[in-house]
UniProtKB/TrEMBL annotation:
Belongs to the 5'(3')-deoxyribonucleotidase family. Residues 32-88 are annotated as: Disordered. Keywords: Hydrolase, Magnesium, Metal-binding. Gene3D superfamilies: HAD superfamily/HAD-like. This is 5'-nucleotidase domain containing 2. One of its GO terms (molecular function) is 5'-nucleotidase activity. Transmembrane segments: none annotated.
Amino acid sequence: MAAAGLKAAGGSVWKSGGVGLQLVAAAASTHSCASKGSGDGRAGCSQPRAHQHQSAGHSPPPPPPPSLNGKVKRAGDSSHAATAPLGSPVEGVDTKSYLWARYHEMKKLVYDLLPPGVCSLLNPAAIYANNEISLGDVEIYGFDYDYTLAQYSNLLHSMIFNTARDILIEQFKYPEGLRKYEYIPGFAIRGLHYDVHKSLLMKIDAFHYVQLGTAYQGLKPVPDEEVIEMYGGTQHIPLYQMSDFYGKGPSIKQFMDIFSLPEMTLLSSVTDYFMTHNIEYDQVHLYKDISDAIKDVHVKGMMYKWIEKDMEKYILHGDETYAVLNRLVNHNKKLFLITNSPFSFVDKGMKHMVGKNWRDLFDMVIVQADKPNFFTDRRKPFRKMDEKGSLHWDKISKLEKGKIYKQGNLFDFLRLTGWRGSKVLYFGDHLYSDLADLMLRHGWRTGAIVPELETEIRIINTEQYMHSLTWQQALTGLLERMQMYQDAESRQVLLEWMKERQEIRSLSKNLFNPQFGSIFRTFHNPTYFSRRLIRFSDIYMASISCLLNYDVNFTFYPRRTPLQHEAPLWMDQLCTGCMKTPFLEEMVHIR
């Protein structure tokens, strides 16, 4: 069955960012799927070949020069040169030649270990675990609606952008010239931070540092030196002073949901217009006006009407949603829905995806819940609602199957249902509004829906990315190991390597998004978004349909990610010939 196949595939999945490192390490120990077996050379590879996504400008490196060892080591040679440590030049060879020889040896090793057609290592349909969790222990499944049960077409982003832009012009009296701006698909990514007082959209890593090259005012990047000057001579952003737990300001806002993509693009477009036309503006009021315009699109029901009018156009993969829910019910799991959307909208969407009797699948349906306040505020009571949207004002003493409830709070929900702890697994797309409080305060298990994961994994599986990342890791290890050579010629070589490393990093970033890169990585560090994803979710996946690939009793085991002080077969140590703690012998004089 599908679950068994994916168990094999998912069991060997490596986390993004370490793919090249672990691939080459594995290949070096003769376990790479690209080097095992016979015939087509793919025996033992449980996943299909990666697509050939090599750019026109990406070609194999030139053949390396003859190996340094070939120059100095001869059969039967027992001299010191033949047994010189790999971390130091042999006698009679200048350091510049030695450094370049090591460089070419490493490049050859990398490309030998990553032959053309290297198999796809990551499965876009897999579920990835941050924390060990057994589905066999889960009795109750909860779901958000938007971007969890219902996946939407990107066409919706253009509608939100255009409508909010027109609200700015027609109601807030912004310049008519803004109508020339259209939504730019792929301009922004989820998880970015926006400095309200500087009109600066930027990507921040897990350590609160701006990734240089990813800070934008309007539609243009801000030079690195200007970004550093803006923050008092540092890339570090004091988020604890400038933003709250939920990333809502007052000074810095983090955009965490998929609906925020058109908002970020509109902020950048309006700022671009003002800057291009030399128009003075109040940055705080600009942010507030655009937030209000975007809010109107949602609160006044415009977006709901577009979707209801053409569900085939805007709702994706409805059949998969039905398959997931039906399968869980057939295995005697209890289901509930907690959404901020109104019932009439949810009802029409669920009938489209699941059928007119969709409520029979759910033990509880809660609409207009006002998350994240639903999880923290005890004051709002549940109100029963009929199918026409009318409220009943009698006190709720129990939550009944098949009934619709509005608002309420999690504390009453727990008291009335007794659904507590790790037997509950709740899925949502918003790390703060859906998952954070459930994980930290209430001990529920949580699953994050990250639609971007599918695209990012397909990029990671391309040969261009695999070669770039693996060579970058190897070059980084070489730089670290060889920095002890500080004569003039050696320093020039190291500077060339550092420049090449930066070029490779930029190339890899641009494969995901030319402006901001991957939502998961800032070059080598995890993004702030990734940090929150790991902290607030037990598992994460591209869509809930990924559940169909696993048995309902499947246990997810997170891969042991090596800490920096641990000593696995590191890529840089492998390629620089150091199978021990890096260069301690050579660095001992520092102590």
